[in-house]
Prior knowledge:
41% strand; CATH 2.40.50.140; mainly beta; five-stranded mixed beta barrel; globular
Amino acid sequence: MNKVILMGRLTRDPEVRYTQTNNTLVASFSLAVNRRFVRQGEERQADFINIVAWSKLGEFCSKYFKKGQQVGVIGRIQTRTWDDEQGQKHYVTEVVAEEAYFADSRRDGEGAANFENTFGTQVASASSEFEMSSTDDLPF
């Protein structure tokens, strides 16, 4: 199984390109994902993970995601290689996004919780609180 779930901050605005063969939109961006533990006396470290979002999801990301925003991404890891003009082989590992969400609370009039993602479902912010009544069935 190849499944990745990330939450981090965008290091730059998404960059949009179109494929040469069928003119499909692809958005690329990078997430700074904090490491879980901090060694005593050191600053928290982060990993910078490249994300690629295709078609409608890429359009959504390019339209609503901005540098510094905290977002959640669900996808899969993909590796690929290519040779440049000098014959040098390049390797890249990236996450191909299958879902993307806002994870920030609202900021200065931004209505992030009111945007709809590409699948037509409400995008919720991380500050949303979920309530359960005592009559709700739990699966465990």
